[in-house]
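Hey, quick one: can you model this chain's 3D structure?
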Amino acid sequence: FFFFIIINYKTMSQSYKTIHEFSAIASGQTLTSINNAGTAITLTAAQSGEIIVLNSTSGSAVTLSAPEPGLSYRFIVGVTGGHTITAPSASILGSVTSAITATAATSLLTTGAAKTSIATTAGSVRGDTILLVSNGGAYYVSGAVSTFNGLIFQ
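Sure thing. Here's the predicted structure for all 154 residues.
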């Protein structure tokens, strides 16, 4: 299946036509839930593309596989708490956006050297999201949290 969006518009002297092609929606994505208190999970390359819900009331410990080109994992906070996502080496780069900012918002940036882990805090909110995508050498993070202190890069 392919989806097309066609936009026609004109200026005084020119006519433009823009076509955007979108690949099929990934209907086969798997939802992996971390349910039990103290649960730990090590993700494999075969689990790339999965959506991982962090819903253990006592926190979840997630270990990423080694970075490989094209790997991606999406995390959603289902229950607030001390969840930790750890890479096998310092390979996490990027930032997330926050709906509420403060002067301490620098915790939302991987400033300087690559980081090894991402930790949610008591400030995290159900629905906060983190996306990690790898180019083979690093994991690039993006996402959105409700408050500036919802997570920390370490």
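One thing worth noting: The two ends are 41 Å apart (CA to CA).
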